[in-house]
Amino acid sequence: MTLESRELGLRLHAAAAIAREAGRIALRRFGDRKSFTVGFKGPQDFLTEVDGEVERFVGGRLHGLFPGDGFIGEEGEGRAAQPDAPTWVVDPIDGTANFARGAPHFCVSIALVGAGRVGDWQALAGALYDPARDELFTASRGGGAFLDGEAIHVSGADDLRSAAIEVGWNARSGAERYLGLLGRVVAAGAAPMRSASGALALAYVACGRSDAFIEHHINAWDCLAGNVLVREAGGFVSDFLAHDGLHKGNALLACAPALRDSLSGMAALEGVNL
Predict the structure, then answer these.
(1) For residue 120, what pLDDT is reported?
(2) What is the pLDDT of residue 272?
(3) Which residues make Cβ contacts (< 8 Å) with residue 249, sequence separation at least 6?
(4) What is the rounded distance in angstroms from the CA atom of residue 112 to the CA atom of residue 126?
(5) Are both 5-151 and 160-267 of the same fold?
(6) Within the chain, what is the greatest distance between any pair of CA atoms?
(7) What one-character-per-residue DSSP string does the chain give?
(8) Quick one: which of 5, 178, 210, 239 is 20 to 30 A from 28 by CA?
(9) Could you say which architecture CATH assigns to the domain 160-267?
(10) CATH topology (fold) of 5-151
(11) Domain segments of the chain as ranges
């Protein structure tokens, strides 16, 4: 399902405003680290009560405005898409490890997926707000990508030897696969990066601050808003929603278009649909 342009624009405007509000809540809590505790969902998988607080705020705002829409939140505010209505996919704090450690590199990510079933979903829009830098990234299908209202574009990088590539890491894929990929990136002459926020990594590809993002497995709430940003900024994004990536996650490659062929061969990511 695709929304009429007016309806899509209305939802994107709402998502951007809500992302700003939610980001300010997160930033206030970040400024007083004694106001929250830090726990773990798994190895290196940080969790704070601020994640749940922000997600409930975002979910409440969206439900109030669009009560018929579905909602998938990282912290458990619903886990299924609505087949007959658009669905919101939300990461209340992407970069929780940074947030918990006191590093100001995290964001609120809100994506909108059109109604459909497995194999039919399309990411239609995304709003991503970095409260520490007061930067708002927005994009909608066919409408371009923007940073604080100014159009953005991916870099013109065409040589891995001058490219900066963010290599995402997660415990699910294991050390051997990650180190193998990292080694291939370095051997190709590229500069590897890791910022611990997949959403911001994709936003940085979209605005040309880096040239590519690769990860063996990433969840929908971490990347869908960023995927729309990269695609609308003129970049290449692999088909993340294939094979029920919405609920199960998937491998991901997003990059400047001239790097697609060299990176797709080097990455060797199972599940990536090019």
Answers:
(1) 72
(2) 57
(3) 217, 218, 219, 220
(4) 6
(5) no
(6) 51
(7) ----HHHHHHHHHHHHHHHHHHHHHHHHHHT-GGGS-EEEEETTEEEEHHHHHHHHHHHHHHHHH-TTSEEEETTSS-----TTS-EEEEEEEETHHHHHHT-S--EEEEEEE-S--TTT--EEEEEEEETTTTEEEEEETTTEEEETTEE--------GGG-EEEE---TTT-HHHHHHHHHHHHHTT-EEE--S-HHHHHHHHHTTSSSEEEEEEE-HHHHHHHHHHHHHTT-EE--TTGGGHHHH-EEEEEE-GGGHHHHHHHH--TT---
(8) 210
(9) 3-Layer(aba) Sandwich (3.40)
(10) Fructose-1,6-Bisphosphatase; Chain A, domain 1 (3.30.540)
(11) 5-151, 160-267
Asked which of 36-40, 49-53, 62-66, 80-84 is least confident by mean pLDDT, the reply is 80-84
Whether the pLDDT of residue 47 is over 60: the answer is yes
The token pair that represents 131 in the structure block? 């409260």
**Is the model's pLDDT at 87 over the cut of 70?**
yes
Q: Is 81 left (phi over 0), alpha (psi -120 to 50) or beta?
A: beta
Q: Rounded mean pLDDT of 13-22?
A: 98
| Cβ–Cβ under 8 Å, residues 126 and 111 | yes
pLDDT of residue 42: 67
105-122 pLDDT, tens per residue? 999 999 999 977 666 789
